[in-house]
Amino acid sequence: MFVFEQRSDRILTGRQRVAAAAGLLLALALPCTGLHAELVFRSVVQENGQQRWSPARKYDNSIDTVFARQSAGGAPEEVRVTLAGEITRADVDSAAVMVRLLKSGRQKLADNAVWFASNGGDIDAAMGLGRLLRELGAFAYVGKDDQCLSACAFAFMGGERRSVAGQLGIHRPFFPYSQNVPDRQQRFRHLQRVLKAYVEEMDFPASLYEAVMLVPPETMKILSPAELKGFYLEGISPSSEDLADAASARRLDLSMFEYMKYKAAAPACAFPLGNQARCDAKGQAVAGGGAAGRGTVDAQGAGTGRTYARKAPDPF
Questions:
Q1: pLDDT for 239
Q2: Does the predicted model carry a pTM greater than 0.70?
């Protein structure tokens, strides 16, 4: 197992250093926030006749999850989920709880999305989170006032569709210990193979892996909008879009040629990607976001076939 850890000022004992080496720990050059990343969720509640987000609850707290609210009609609790702080293995356990609640029908992701605000952490956990997100078909967002850095970027890659309004940063990992381990170089090469395989597994171009490895570990590269699109970190990967297009064409009983004509003629807002504009009831683009009552046009199964009705209040 490979782990990215944020840099800490702790002084390790000799025994701890050996354990770190044996555990193949890999660090990110980031100041340690001292905060454990947490998958937190808020639900839509009525307050004085207005829809609001509830106080944050945690998936690692059984008290918060055991009584996941269900309406009298059996509708699932609509929640907005955010990953914040330093990513650790415990977050994969929390994500498993989230998956169980979603698959059991007790909860439903608002906008089918998970929001990211993390400075990095455990890369193995980040990849585990990414795989769970892809399994769910969830979207991945970085809000305009948030950042997703280092290992967080690998979790973000799991989003079926992705949008970055804030900052997404990458850099090359490094080992946190300076001992002259005999097979240090072999270990690092193995790390490279693991990361490269994950990038390919998540349907991203090899150029994304190369971009990560080109950034010195003591620095951070914030990707520009053009780079985000070029690496498919904004939007959807080509093979995933092809799969979605084929599913949409089947639902509309169209050939692929007919569907492409339909798609080309439809307003871009009919095929929402992340924070791009949505369509109002007249098919006109409206600003992105999650305002209550904001009308949208579902592209008849475009993408995953999920609807994009806005039921939740503005993001917290």
A1: 87
A2: yes
